[in-house]
From TrEMBL:
PANTHER family: DNA 3'-5' HELICASE (PTHR11070:SF45), UVRD / RECB / PCRA DNA HELICASE FAMILY MEMBER (PTHR11070). Pfam families: UvrD-helicase, UvrD_C. It catalyses: Couples ATP hydrolysis with the unwinding of duplex DNA by translocating in the 3'-5' direction; ATP + H2O = ADP + phosphate + H(+). It comes from the Bacteria. ATP binds at residues 275-282. Keywords: ATP-binding, Helicase, Hydrolase, Isomerase, Nucleotide-binding. Its EC number is 5.6.2.4. It is an enzyme of class 5 (isomerase). This is DNA 3'-5' helicase. Residues 254-535 form the UvrD-like helicase ATP-binding domain.
Amino acid sequence: MPRLALSDDFVADLVSLQRPVQKEVNDAIQMFRSMTVPQLHASKGMHLEKLERARDRRIRTIRITKSYRGVLLAPDDGSELFTLLRVAPHDEAINWACKRAYSVNGATGGLEVRNVEALEQMETYFGAKEDAAPARLFERHSDTTLCDLGIDDQVLRLARVCVTAEDLMVMAPPMMPADQYEVLEFLANGYSAEDVWEQLIASRGQTIRTAGDRPAVTLTEAILNTPDRIVEVTGPGELERILTEDLTRWRIFLHPAQRRFAYHPGFNGAAQVTGGPGTGKTVVALHRVRHLLRTGRDGDRILLTTFTNAMAAALRDSLALLLGESDAHLLGRVDVTTVDSLAARALREARGAAAPRPLSAAAERSAWTRAAAREDLPWNEQFLSQEFRNVVLAQGLRTPEEYLRCVRKGRGTQVGRVQRARLWRVMERFTDDVASRHSATYTQLCDQAARGLAESGPRYRHVVVDEAQDLHPAQWRVLRACVAPQSDDLFLVGDPHQRIYDTRVSLRSLGIHVRGRTSRLRLNYRSTEEILRWSASLLDGQPVGRLGEDDEAEGGRDSLRGYRSQLHGRIPAAHGYPSQDAELGALVDQIRTWTDQDGVKPSEIAVCARFNTLVDAVIARLRREGVPAVAVKDDPGPGTSGVRVATMHAMKGLEFRCVAVVGVTAKALPFAQQVTPAEVDQVQHQCDLLAEHCLLFVACTRARDALAISWNGQRSAMLDPVAG
Ligand SMILES: Nc1ncnc2c1ncn2[C@@H]1O[C@H](COP(=O)(O)OP(=O)(O)OP(=O)(O)O)[C@@H](O)[C@H]1O
């Protein structure tokens, strides 16, 4: 019986087909799997055909419907593992198949594909302009080094003629084999050969460094070595699952850097994955949960947390999708929730009706005003609230003595002993006041819940945390208390460049140690390279600390170096207008271009603004002009049509084909009210400013294909690096 594998290109084709054609593909595959190899070759129905013009003699086509052909890679070494490479209309399938060649990567042992015809044309083109060339892009690296990194003869010849990174870029996959291209891209970005080997090759399990010493790999082995692009269909249930459920690629194919952590057999403690926007961190978290569910014991409960209720709902849906019908029974062992909801629930369980209720921001401000009323203090409510949140609750201080002794990390003002005593009195008054009203700030709720949970003992065997960059130390204490320190206790994913709330955390000081168990994702699956570059330059020179290392003693910097996308598109547009009316008029035109000319559905477009007032104005204007629009905060389901409109904060974790960021004015970004004045606290001032930069970065990186930025009146200085 032949074995069957499916390539990522095949799955991508299948997703785009109409349902009836999908069904015929399914039928053809079932027929294929029911035959022996000789029957397959003899079958008139399948019409397994060798192509005269094919560059790879193992390539065949099979008949799927009257007009569709499947493209297959057939083994020629006596093995029986066939790979379905594409399914496409007849001529397209034949044309594609004739130009491809499959080979085994010398370093990774994985199967790779190239457009051999296009690469030969490139050789001719570069050959013609060769003699004029100055220094070459890869001249620092010897042929042997490149060969050890998996570069083969044809790619080596092409690498040798590249002068600039752009020369390399014109040969990007699908022209060049993706793994070899990735190696060259890393080298072109200044990584050493050693780094490249560590990050791209050793991570796949290779231990032999030199090409000459590596054992030969058979076609079947090569296919099985390529789980990021090829999946073997191991049973009828599996095929059904792949073909009948939602065919989103992230469910099936993971980048090796994603797979290595998601399916790691067991970490000896907490582990952490970081990476820029759209690098598939959430996807890794979901696969990790699946792995822990499948390999864990029946009673092991798992907590999966994220930042907002809306994101928790989306995570729950995605997890159900990933588990599919076959693993649906495991879902009952997972709680998907925010840390705040978890803390509130723990308090309700412990104290019943006496549990405090969360305090609104306005009620908190009034409570600080009341608490400070009888003192003649040199600090305003904002300072008091920050001191309470960022020192007292962050460090979990309980007594005036502890407060007198503590190091006020992250605060830029000196506060002497006498002043601390006065501050403590005010904070105590605040706490008593809100407690007498049966309420507490969210951070207080977490602080109280963490203490209760620490006493009652761990509730979960594993905790998986998405959007880890925005959690406050009190929230981390809740998580720490939920799970005992042991193997695979905490799995954290986050991006410090997307930190949009005022939180600084030293995970080490909270008893969470990830050293030696960290990984960084660099390939963006969401946005085009043009959107990425543009957005990343918004953060040029900003001092972004590493995830969980904000303790000054640890204090390294995170960077977006090597962060890239294989997708390409238009450079983002940035335009200023004389008035808001003119800006919104241009927005309507932009949306019409996206829908009418580019064929984008309104629900695949988002407009975002710094404030709710502008969000409302945008919705009103769009509706007035006949463009359907809905507010993201009203939680429109996937079936609801209309352009999505949201504040920048609400864009966290979302993605859209096209995004317009409006009202990027000097007044809105940075928003003065959100930034502590430097004279009140210099350190806090810098931290708040950085959060505003990150907010704009988050908004822009939600875009997949197109991004448009606009303002009216004076432009925000944050756009200076990109808008000239
Ligand atoms: N291995 C993969 N193959 C195909 N698509 C992927 C893969 N991994 C992630 N994606 C897609 O990339 C997009 C971004 O993924 P995800 O939301 O997990 O990224 P993220 O790093 O958590 O993003 P952010 O931090 O910006 O919220 C999603 O559309 C996801 O489906």
